[in-house]
Amino acid sequence: MRGGANKQEPPSPGAEDIVAQVQAASDNLADLGLEDMQDNPVDDEEEYVDESTGKKKQRSWLGKIGKGISKRAQSVAKSITGGQMTQADEDVLAGVMSCRHPYAVKEGGIGIQDQEEAKICRSVLSMMIKSMGRTLLQGGNVMKTSFPIQCCQPRTILEVASCQAQYFHAFLPRAAAETDPVERMKLVVACFVSSQILTSANFMKPLNPILGETLQVDFSDGSKAYLEQTCHHPPITSFCLDSPQGLYDFWGFTEFGVKFGYNRMFLLSKGNLTLKFKDGTTFEVGLSENKVNNVFWGNMHHELYGTQTFVDTTNNMRATINYNAPGRVGLPSDYFEGVLEKFDPANPDNEGQPISNVSGSWVGFCDFDKVRYWDINSCSKLTMSAPVNLLKSDSRERTDRNALAAKNINLAQAEKIRLEEDQRYQRKLREAKHGVKGH
After folding, report:
1. Helix, strand, or coil here: 40?
2. What is the pTM of this model?
């Protein structure tokens, strides 16, 4: 032991201590003097750092496509508009504002509705900044950080993620029956754009799944989803969804991360998502980029940004969505524009042959060539239920989750600590036996 045989590490705070610290913390983050901090831009280069290895990696060709098209669109749009709101912008604004989720905010995205939740989140951040210092806010992935139970919701990441399939029934069975590849692509894009709203407004943090944790979901249309936490560090969720009559299958994995910038929090995700129809047509589904603005002060709200790309690998078609569309003036950030095009798979970075234009707002609607494919006012959600016989590893069996749902905060925090300590112990056993770190 360093520093002498009698020196001991200070004891970790107990559950009641952590709960009390959050209750005593101030939610006024202006007191922390963060005004001098500069924003940490999210990596927009061709390379990114793989946090599991610490090495630089090239973006996938799917990611490069989205970045390249977005940059070309920004350049062209700026030269055309000159930064002034046009009559076309005015017309688009009227359409966007007429079809929106009731929680949508004027500047764009979904706003927090419960100010008590905002207060709790800011109190937790205040406490953690004082404890960990500014390194918490300097761009590192904080998924390895244990957050107090008060800022969590009584659902895990697996449960939140499964909600994105609640609109699939409105689009994918029709897409499976469609013989026109262009029309099928439009339905696929509309499906996944509409699904964004289903997991928005989650300002309280979902619980991190434990390695090996599972979730089974039965949807009211007969679809069944299966999710499992297959890696601890980095946190990776694997999933598959089986549709009724085998019309389509959806599977893949996602890795989640969280980084803080100046008065904002970036919700990072990457992975591989594949959608395959019964006739063999296969799509690669890109992931959107998310952030929560005004996490320290101001009106807290969730936004999408950047690009999202969908590729029909069977028919060499792709669609690219640009959230907070460049070149538009005076529009909320939830407005998007994009293009559906044929492309040469041998030269995916080259511009393709445009087939159709897509536009809309992820909080309200999706249009292709001014024809509406999704309207939030006319799309109903599937109901979700648990199978009769749950696995012991199911998220709904977690003791901390269930104590939190029952509003027993002290017990929830104690169980969260116990589960985390057990997970660390199991990880050490695996590393000692197999010599592999991170899983």
Report:
1. coil
2. 0.83
